[in-house]
Amino acid sequence: MNLESTQRSVQTQKSTSEDEASSRSRALLSVMEDLQAERESLKAEIQRRCETEAALRQSEHRTALIIETALDGVITVNDSGHITGWNDQAAVIFGWSREQASGMRISEIILLDEAESRPGSDSGDHLHAGRSDLLNRRIERTAIRSDGSRFPAELSMSVLPLDAGFEFSCFVRDITNRKNAERLQLEMQAELERRVIERTQELERANERLRNSNEELQQFAYVASHDLQTPLRGIMGFAQFLESDYTPNLDEQGLEYINRIVASAKRMQTLIQDLLKFSRVQSLASELTPVWLDKPLSAAVAVLESEMEKCSVELISEDLPRVLADAAQIEQLFRNLIENSIKYRHPERRPQIRVSAILEGDRWTISIADNGIGIDPKHFKRIFEIFKRLHAEGEYSGNGIGLAVCRRIVLRHGGRIWADESDVGALIKFTLHSPKSLSSESQPSKSVHADEDQ
């Protein structure tokens, strides 16, 4: 009985020991797994830190490389104003090496306060993070090289916060060339302004002399033309007396001489009258006012009505605008141009004249086209010169002053006149200013014929 009880007790203790061993084994295994997980986490953290340190070193290397290869001088300054960093370009600009510049005061090489003119002053002592008016903007200051020479510099400063305090980064650029260019530009501008003033004064004096000369010339032309007509009348009168009273005493040659005297005197009288017309373009000019062009055109047609009827001329007027003009002179302009078209009409065609206008900018271009014999392009400029004729006197009448008067009238209005190429006949164009405050609307179009009531 006791043996059986002892065996059961031993068996129970053995079972308990096995349970405890199993439990301890599981606990040990769990601890080992935790340690393995901790080891893996630590290994990963070490790897991550190594990568971070490598990236940091690479970033620092890149930053240092950027600073060293920068085209501007890069300087770092501590909060007491002493230089702690100095790149290669700073050495080029100032002439001090990195070792020589280290520990120098920023105020020894840059006059931060322009009120201070001596290097090494306390002008740099007022730098404080977020408080200095020198920070975070581009400013121009005087800088000092190692040889004592001074030069203009462009400076920008910013704060670099640190764990213990702060530093300043300074970017410095030598702007000597830019300042020289600016100074040269100012000098050139001043010289240009001086020359412009001198030239303007010269032009004003020349214009004044030209105005005086024109006035004197116009007065001379008027007086001379007027005074010349008196002796001409005498010559023509006495020549006619000879012809009427002494014809029986003159042979055929004598009568021919008298006819030549009378014809020359009449031609001279016509030239003088044309010269008077030419001079009166300025002397009898009126103020420019808004004028509908159809009115002076109608007035010109009324004067030429009989001649236009005789030649069966058809005048077609398209929409004509309102312009700034001297109405009397524009009437004379139209009259001269229409007379030219009639004079140089084509013998095998019914004369047709077309007047039109087109707005170009603030000016109207007026065109007068005909179907006559036309103008050789090589004579386009010559026809507007005074007393210039393209034909012999026997072919066409006139003294070659009509288009010269037209040119003078248009110039007086601030425009220009020219001959243009045309498939048929002649084409004359001229420009007149449009009144800015007026509408550019035109009068109703109409076709004017020589046989119509004007």
Automatic annotation (TrEMBL):
<dbReference type="Pfam" id="PF00512">
    <property type="entry name" value="HisKA"/>
</dbReference>
<feature type="region of interest" description="Disordered">
    <location>
        <begin position="435"/>
        <end position="454"/>
    </location>
</feature>
<dbReference type="InterPro" id="IPR052162">
    <property type="entry name" value="Sensor_kinase/Photoreceptor"/>
</dbReference>
<dbReference type="InterPro" id="IPR005467">
    <property type="entry name" value="His_kinase_dom"/>
</dbReference>
<dbReference type="InterPro" id="IPR003594">
    <property type="entry name" value="HATPase_dom"/>
</dbReference>
<dbReference type="GO" id="GO:0000155">
    <property type="term" value="F:phosphorelay sensor kinase activity"/>
</dbReference>
<keyword id="KW-0175">Coiled coil</keyword>
<keyword id="KW-0418">Kinase</keyword>
<keyword id="KW-0597">Phosphoprotein</keyword>
<feature type="domain" description="Histidine kinase">
    <location>
        <begin position="223"/>
        <end position="436"/>
    </location>
</feature>
<protein>
    <recommendedName>
        <fullName>histidine kinase</fullName>
        <ecNumber>2.7.13.3</ecNumber>
    </recommendedName>
</protein>
<feature type="region of interest" description="Disordered">
    <location>
        <begin position="1"/>
        <end position="26"/>
    </location>
</feature>
<dbReference type="InterPro" id="IPR036890">
    <property type="entry name" value="HATPase_C_sf"/>
</dbReference>
<dbReference type="InterPro" id="IPR004358">
    <property type="entry name" value="Sig_transdc_His_kin-like_C"/>
</dbReference>
<feature type="compositionally biased region" description="Low complexity">
    <location>
        <begin position="435"/>
        <end position="447"/>
    </location>
</feature>
<dbReference type="InterPro" id="IPR000014">
    <property type="entry name" value="PAS"/>
</dbReference>
<dbReference type="Pfam" id="PF13426">
    <property type="entry name" value="PAS_9"/>
</dbReference>
<feature type="domain" description="PAS">
    <location>
        <begin position="59"/>
        <end position="103"/>
    </location>
</feature>
<keyword id="KW-0808">Transferase</keyword>
<dbReference type="Pfam" id="PF02518">
    <property type="entry name" value="HATPase_c"/>
</dbReference>
<dbReference type="InterPro" id="IPR003661">
    <property type="entry name" value="HisK_dim/P_dom"/>
</dbReference>
<feature type="compositionally biased region" description="Polar residues">
    <location>
        <begin position="1"/>
        <end position="15"/>
    </location>
</feature>
<dbReference type="InterPro" id="IPR036097">
    <property type="entry name" value="HisK_dim/P_sf"/>
</dbReference>
<feature type="coiled-coil region">
    <location>
        <begin position="189"/>
        <end position="223"/>
    </location>
</feature>
<dbReference type="InterPro" id="IPR035965">
    <property type="entry name" value="PAS-like_dom_sf"/>
</dbReference>
